[in-house]
Amino acid sequence: MRRYRLDGFAGTSSLRLERCDVPVPGPRQVLVRMRAWSLNHRDLLIAHGRYGRDVLPGLVPLSDGAGEVVRSGAEVTRWRPGDAVVGLFLPGWQSGRPRVDRALGGSVDGVLAEYVVFDEDAVVAPPSHLDFAEAATLPCAALTAWQAVVELGGLHPGQSVLTLGSGGVSVFALQIAAAGGARVIATSGSASKLERLRALGACEVIDHARTPDWGARAAAWSGGGVDHVIEVGGAGTMRQSITAARVGGRISVIGVLGGGPGISPVPLLRKVLCVQGVQVGSAEMFRAMNRALEHHRIRPVIDRVFPFSRAAEAFRHLESGAHIGKVVLTAE
């Protein structure tokens, strides 16, 4: 079989395609023939050595992938050959208190290989209406958006939600929030992307390139501040996100796409804001999200699909920032 490794952290040039034996599952494991994979901004940070955590050379990259079980260990009871499955970003977090010590494609090997062994409880069944390429987009971006918007954000009809940009988490947050009856405001610096975001369900769109004070614009449109901001920019956008939020509102901190200076805690105190970091989600959340996606017939937004052998090209496309939604690889 073929798999990719990162032999260093110099970016896309560090990706190496190699051949190796197909792994053998243990008694409580399943062997999955991977049919599709998707990329996240995290994968770029890791490839460039900017992730800031214990990641070693030789890592098999990517956290997100979907495929079919081809072999089960002797003690496996949940799965049988032919079952479609999606891997968990955090294989140790089944439910309850977060367990974030093991993350695929970071602290442990990821899934950018033609065959991968998973513990039987480290995979879930995908929504029945999705194909493998669509299912592969769910483990990181979709589940992160679900936890932020629904599990922590208490999504309800009429709630106002602000999403930033057109990356995977933001687009999933828009789709999920709109399906739940929320009024979604979306930002982008591209007119064509804003048009697409409106078509996906945004009630209002803001061109942040032309409106530097987009936080105040969002607050005014929502009648005094939005209930919930899905914050993916980090220090570069946090000040505007605080401005956008209502008194007593929530900011879910998910990404660090933009750099910038630190912020004073005073505005947080004055507006009595709840600011919470979000780290993907558990298996229990994943199953709940899949039921909701299936019920509402929500389909992931896939920007481009590349064959497995062109993984480096897929990385470069994601890095260009030209995408809307997800960048996907499929088996050849």
From TrEMBL:
Q: Name one Pfam family in it.
A: ADH_zinc_N
**Domain Enoyl reductase (ER), chain residue ranges per copy:** 11-329
CDD domains of this UniProt entry? Answer: MDR7
Q: Which domain of life is it from?
A: Bacteria
Among the GO molecular function terms of this UniProt record, one is: oxidoreductase activity
InterPro entries (UniProt xref) = ADH-like_C, ADH-like_N, ER, GroES-like_sf, NAD(P)-bd_dom_sf, Zinc_ADH-like
Q: What is this protein called?
A: Alcohol dehydrogenase
Organism lineage: Bacteria, Bacillati, Actinomycetota, Actinomycetes, Kitasatosporales
